[in-house]
Design goal:
single chain; mainly alpha; Helix Hairpins; 0% strand
Length: 66
């Protein structure tokens, strides 16, 4: 997956953001198991997912507060 761009995320609808957030949470969950079993081939991916989740949650909070 390429680097996410917050400008592109802001253009998405709330439902699209919530779906993407759900998929990222699922991937984060699976990566946690890979790390615990020593099977994680891309440790940077875990950090990337955390940052993208934070960005999506920030955008959702800003939209819902307005």
């Amino acid at each position: 997956m390429a680097k996410y761009k917050p400008k592109e995320l802001k253009l998405k609808t709330i439902d699209e953001l919530k779906d993407q957030l759900r998929l990222l949470r699922k991937e984060q969950f699976n990566l946690r198991f890979q790390v615990s079993n020593g099977q994680n081939e891309n440790p940077a991916r875990f950090r990337f997912i955390r940052k993208e989740i934070a960005c999506i949650k920030t955008i959702l909070n800003n939209v819902e507060s307005n």
